[in-house]
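Run log, item B.
One chain of 119 residues. Sequence copied directly from the ordering sheet:
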Amino acid sequence: QVQVVESGGGLVQAGGSLRLSCAAAGNIFSINAMGWYRQAPGKQRELVALVASGGTKYGDFVKGRFTISRDNAKKTVDLQMNSLEPEDTAAYYCNVAGISTGIRGFNSWGQGTQVTVSS
């Protein structure tokens, strides 16, 4: 079993910054990808940023404002968010995909952390 825990959400004014952190633990043999997604009320969950063996990908709306960083040894992934806008208000979820020690694929989600940007 793989556990994913996020931290770092909160309330910030427009133009401010927040840093989200995510840690994966449990029966992990290898991690293929770690990333952040978000879901606003009434909207579908969307990709924010992803780090995988093939590289890094950001959602179109990021426009250079966010930076994702991954520490393979610690099994963590952080998301630095700058120049936040009210439209960034959402629940942010960490996702980790890889291979378990039982040599089975896994795709695990965290519980989510709320980011609220006031205007």
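Observations after the first pass:
- Residues 9 and 64 are 20 Å apart (CA to CA).
- The mean pLDDT is 96.
Flagged for discussion on Thursday.
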